[in-house]
Structures are given as C-alpha cells and as structure tokens.
Amino acid sequence: MTTARFYLTGSRIDAVEVSEHAGYAEAGEDIVCAAVSANLDLTSCLLEDVMGLAIRTEVDEENARIRLELPNSLEEAEETQAQNALNALMLYFINLKARYQDFIEVMEV
C-alpha cells in the first residue's frame, strides 16, 4: 500500500512523503502508483521549476520513498501558492483513496 504523509506545522504543510508501492497491479502496470507518481512529479515541477522555490527533494528508490520539503521561510505570495499546490495534492490523494481505499493511505502528521 502506498502511504502519503503530509507533515504539518499548524495548518502549514511543510513536506509530503510518499512511500511504498500501491500493489494494485504488477510494477509498470499499476494505475494507482502511476497516478501518485504523476501528481507528485507535477507538484514538484510546479514548486521548483515554475515557482522557482528551492524545495528539498529526497528520493530513495531502494525503499520506494520520495519526500518534497518546502523551505522554512517564503515570501507571502510564494507561501500561499506553495500551500495551494500542496493542499491540491493532498485533496487529489484523498480523492484517489476514495476510489482505491485498499491501495493508498493519506495521513496528516
């Protein structure tokens, strides 16, 4: 099962960490893993490449884990946009869980 953990300080999402394979289908054919990966990649591209934020990205392929972490301090407009992006990602994962409840878990930590 894939687990998506959203790390919060108050209402601020500081980081998201996704780990494990969903197990919906064979590797390379798992639509849940593909959906999670594609949306995590899109969020990373938005934060880093479009917004120009210096996010910290950790990839541990051996343990199937990816973590995106925002800088501690951002300008107000950047903070708002970054939080909107991470909240949208969380909402997407929650909606995905509603359809594939045995294959993805979403947690606020």
End-to-end gap = 18 Å
CATH superfamily: Cysteine protease Prp
**Strand sequence of the main sheet, in spatial order?**
3-4-2-1-5
Low-confidence segments: none
Q: Would you report the number of β strands?
A: 5
What would you report as the Rg, rounded to the nearest angstrom?
A: 14 Å
Tell me the strand percentage band.
Answer: 25-35%
pLDDT average, as an integer? 96
Q: Largest sheet at a glance?
A: 5 strands, mixed
Summed up, the domain count is 1
Helix proportion of residues, in percent? 40-55%
InterPro entries: Peptidase_Prp
Organism: Butyricicoccus intestinisimiae
Protein name: Ribosomal-processing cysteine protease Prp
Pfam family, one: Peptidase_Prp
Walk me through what this model shows.
One of its GO terms (biological process) is proteolysis. This protein is of the alpha+beta class. The protein has a single domain (2-108), classed as 2-Layer Sandwich (Alpha-Beta Plaits). 40% of the residues lie in helices and 28% in strands. The protein is built from 2 helices and 5 strands; from the N terminus they run ββαββαβ. It has helices at 31-50, 76-99, and strands at 2-9, 12-19, 56-60, 65-69, 104-108. Strand 1 (2-9) and strand 2 (12-19) form a beta hairpin. Helix 1 packs antiparallel against helix 2 (76-99). The mean pLDDT is 96.
Name some characteristics of this structure.
single chain; Alpha-Beta Plaits; alpha+beta; 40% helix; 109 residues
